[in-house]
Give the backbone structure.
Amino acid sequence: MHHWTVSTSPDAASIAAADFIAAQISTAIEARGICHMIVPGGNTPAGCYAALAEKPLPWDKLHCYPGDERCYRVGHAERNDVMIESIFLSRTPGIHFHPMATESGAEQAALAYQTTIEPVDLFDIAFLGVGEDGHTASLFPGNAALAETASVVAVHHSPKPPADRISMSLPILRQARLRVVLATGPSKATIMGRIRSGEPLPVNQIGDIHWFVDEVSLSADSKPSC
């Protein structure tokens, strides 16, 4: 079942998501002494990261892992870890960040990252985005990576550049204790209608989601029904 928090603007949705995620980080640390969180790239999470960085959390007990990464050289402006470092990590000293070494190629990087996350029993939080085609992380509709069962998968023939990426798999995202998706703006309105109708898009295959959206992103159809 999806749980919906609807805000009046993208900024308000980002702040609401940050408040929720901060509370969940605190809960995980209180319960287990540590928090393992999957984090997204892209443009939408930037405001949430900025708001989250203002929280007085025990950052040294938080471990963050990209949900996916693009096969570019280290430091390339289109890598997810570059945005995450600029907006979030640079403001929260002490966080343990585990980058994906996609500069080595998708197959090798996926195998290496499987080893990186092997010690993690369950991810406490999977913070994700959603694309205009319903993809999440780098799991695209109709892509062969959707059927893979390894914890981290190589993604080829991405409909968005670059063609090669790696991604956390559907089983790993399903197993997380909690999933959070932030989606805002008019460009998401059409896909949000399809998501709410229950269409089996990749994002609808990862389990229950706590959605944080703005009113404009819901403008394509009626009140959420799933």
Q: What stands out?
A: The two ends are 6 Å apart (CA to CA). Residues 222-226 have pLDDT under 50 and may be disordered. The beta strands are 2-7, 35-39, 62-66, 68-70, 96-97, 125-128, 152-155, 165-168, 179-183, 209-214. Helices lie at 10-32, 46-53, 80-87, 106-117, 170-175, 189-196.
